Amino acid sequence: MKLVVDQLQKRFGTQEVLRGASFTFEQGKIYGLIGRNGAGKTTFFNCLNEDLTADGGSFHLEDDAGAARPVTADDMGYVLSTPVVPEFLTAREFLQFFLEINRGKIPYPKAPDVYLDYMCIDPADRGKLLKDFSHGMKNKMQMLVNIMADPAVLLLDEPLTSFDVVVADEMKALLRRIKTRHIILLSTHIMDLALDLCDDIVILHHGVLQEVRREDLADEAYKDRIIAALKEEPDVV
Ligand SMILES: Nc1ncnc2c1ncn2[C@@H]1O[C@H](COP(=O)(O)OP(=O)(O)OP(=O)(O)O)[C@@H](O)[C@H]1O
């Protein structure tokens, strides 16, 4: 499976944020999306998730035989940098509710505690209201329901920044485990995280997407060149 993005455009008033962003993202890989503050990473994700309507361009899924089909809501999982969870439910109730509203869609549904174990959520926290969860714990719950839904594409907007070092490590291991079944796009400002976790790095700069060659990542000086490129004009990497 591939996610093919073709000439995506988005402007807010006179500000052109996406100016024909094109890229083909493949299943089995984690893509690190890097760009400066305000480069348009969240806008790009919002367009793919159809929270925003793009002004031009298109995107679709393509199976291994090359057959194209439109992306549906069920194909997309989106973990926002600011987690949105129903605060009036406990962690267990939230999962129970999520399982009920997605009955028939979740491939092998299990009891909420099985998922909570999988996500290493402390048993003492499982009966707590989500409003009393920390930012990182809410993020973990948001990540969990998105993984449970088993979408073709997982959009992760700055997913690991709110996690402590132990949880961040767990989440990295989890993403590595599940990546074969998904196309994973992860936006981050943390270059070391991108280099450590991601198979490919894609830079969003001046409204277009540019790939960083995998073999170049072994080069220590490459990090500095990426940073330099983000300060400069496009197409200098
Ligand atoms: N709804 C909106 N209305 C007007 N301008 C917007 C809107 N959403 C985003 N923008 C502008 O579009 C640009 C890109 O914003 P976006 O949030 O996509 O960047 P980003 O790369 O995710 O930034 P950061 O790394 O700081 O989170 C910014 O200049 C922002 O102010």
UniProtKB/TrEMBL annotation:
Pfam families: ABC_tran. Transmembrane segments: none annotated. Signal peptide: none annotated. The keyword Ribonucleoprotein does not apply. Keywords: ATP-binding, Nucleotide-binding, Transport. Residues 3-231 form the ABC transporter domain. Gene3D superfamilies: P-loop containing nucleotide triphosphate hydrolases. SUPFAM superfamilies: P-loop containing nucleoside triphosphate hydrolases. PANTHER family: ABC TRANSPORTER ATP-BINDING PROTEIN ALBC-RELATED. InterPro entries: AAA+_ATPase, ABC_transporter-like_ATP-bd, ABC_transporter-like_CS, ABC_Transporter_VariousFunc, P-loop_NTPase. One of its GO terms (molecular function) is ATP binding. This is ABC transporter ATP-binding protein.
